[in-house]
């Protein structure tokens, strides 16, 4: 009986730990200059890949903003609802091989994301290779 309870407890812990270590969920983006929350991005899985879309903009004066300089079918679309993370695939402890769109300037960068902790996500956009880029840290919405 004790073995059964111990096994069950270990399985429950493994499941809970695995869930907490997933990038899927809602994340607050942080403004580099002010250090304050700027938006909320919902990260989700679709067809085995990771995507992220803007679901909230904190500044009420920017909530109706559109992506003026975005390429392709994103051009002129509202930023709320815009998919900014695309086609990321799991590669060890990080997700890479996809892109991130900066709706402020319409530029698309290669991207990788990785959990720094259960509630802190490193998001790196770069051109060429990952050493030539910039990282942001997003906070999980609780």
Automatic annotation (TrEMBL):
A UniProt-annotated Pfam family: DUF2147
Q: Write out the entry's keywords from A to Z.
A: Signal
Query: Which sequence ranges form a coiled-coil region, renumbered to this chain?
Result: none
Q: Where is the DUF2147 domain?
A: 25-140
Q: Which InterPro entries match?
A: DUF2147
Does this entry carry the keyword Metal-binding? no
Signal peptide (residue range): 1-20
Name it.
Uncharacterized conserved protein, DUF2147 family
The scientific name of the source species is: Aequorivita viscosa
